[in-house]
Design a protein that fits this description.
Layout (H helix, E strand, L loop, with lengths): L1 H6 L4 E6 L18 H18 L5 E4 L6 H8 L6 H17 L2 E4 L4 H18 L7 E6 L5 H15 L3 E6 L16 H17 L23 E6 L3 H17 L5 E7 L4 H10 L17 E7 L2 H14 L3 H20 L3
Parallel strand pairs: 1-2, 1-8, 2-3, 3-4, 4-5, 5-6, 6-7, 7-8
Helix pairs in contact: 2-4, 3-5, 7-8
Length: 343
């Protein structure tokens, strides 16, 4: 599969282990009988297998909640990981680092997110020390708190001298996250996503991603080194990113390390447009060495039971798929005309 994707221009895959726990509304957290050692061991084995299946320069994606109800409770309480979980996570990160595979720790439900942020930033302190990121934290632009959270993490990375790995998504838990925590409109979410992406790509604070701290005190004037994954099916967001990269290519500005991702089987026209932008076939731009576009497909694996929660959430998240189907049809027609007119 990876070879087939690479043949048409994709850089590789973001291979995701589907095992996770989704908190149901009204259900107690972490109240089930469980054996933490067994749960964590199963999660670790599946995650190590994910990394083994990935190739160098691929990503492996994973969810902490897949390690069981005891770990779920630790995340909700935003406590430090248990010794068992800490050892398992260290083994996972060491193995990924040795294979050149980058780790995307996915965002989860808001109840767990503070704990996930704490754990992943601690991992970034340890593993993102050589000018590039091994560990990435996922930030959901639909949450009102995301710009401030990311700004704090950027300030920590700048102060402590490590690369911040950022995976930016719009958000995947609309059905379960408290509504008041989410932007009121899609337009506000779009503004947050695009503003954060532009700030990171241009290495400048802006009116969306603002400098953290008290305005009366000295605040960080620059951003740390950032490695960014833009995960988006939104064509306008992707085109804005392409425009910024092409501008930087023209002016000789050194860009940040950037990759793009879309779910396997969705938004193929977006991924292909990105690939074309790096081959000099998008608009009138010509590619440069720094402008080659690394585009990935996000592929999920696991047992049917492990994949069910993921599939249900994708269906909920993509209720607007009919609108995108029209966009995809138009894009296919445009590409067909372009190919026919070449002859």
């Amino acid at each position: 599969m990876t070879a087939d994707l690479k043949e048409i221009g994709y850089r590789g895959v973001m291979l995701a282990y589907a095992k996770e726990i989704v908190i149901e509304k009204g259900s107690p957290i972490g109240d089930r009988e469980h054996d933490e050692a067994t749960d964590v061991e199963e999660w670790k084995k599946g995650t190590l297998e994910t990394i083994r299946l990935a190739h160098g320069d691929d990503f492996a994606a994973l969810k902490f909640s897949g390690a069981g109800h005891s770990v779920l409770r630790q995340l909700v309480e935003a406590s430090a990981p248990s010794a068992i979980m800490d050892q398992a996570t260290t083994e996972v990160c060491d193995y990924a680092s040795s294979r050149g595979v980058r780790l995307l720790f996915d965002a989860e439900q808001y109840a767990m997110q503070e704990g996930i942020d704490q754990w992943t930033v601690d991992l970034q302190r340890k593993y993102n020390r050589n000018g590039s990121a091994v560990v990435y934290t996922t930030y959901q632009a639909y949450l009102r708190s995301t710009p401030a959270t990311l700004a704090r993490h950027l300030a920590i990375a700048l102060r402590e001298g490590f690369t911040l790995g950022v995976k930016l998504v719009r958000g995947a838990y609309l059905a379960s996250d408290p509504r008041h925590l989410i932007w009121a409109t899609k337009e506000e979410t779009d503004r947050a996503y695009d503003g954060i992406a532009e700030s990171l790509m241009r290495k400048q604070w802006n009116d969306v991603l603002e400098q953290p701290g008290d305005p009366a005190e000295e605040r960080p004037s620059k951003l740390p080194t950032v490695d960014l994954v833009l995960a988006s099916h939104n064509q306008e967001s992707v085109r804005k990113a392409i425009s910024i990269r092409q501008e930087q290519s023209r002016t000789g500005e050194q860009p940040i390390r950037l990759a793009y991702g879309q779910l396997m089987g969705m938004a193929d026209e977006v991924g292909c447009e990105l690939i074309m932008s790096g081959q000099g076939t998008y608009g009138n731009e010509k590619p440069s060495v720094t402008e080659r576009t690394p585009v990935y497909k996000y592929v999920v694996w696991g047992t049917v039971q492990e994949c069910l929660a993921y599939l249900v959430r994708r269906a909920e998240e993509n209720r607007d798929a009919m609108g995108r189907t029209k966009e995809s049809r138009n894009a296919l027609g445009k590409e067909l005309r372009r190919r026919l007119l070449r002859y």
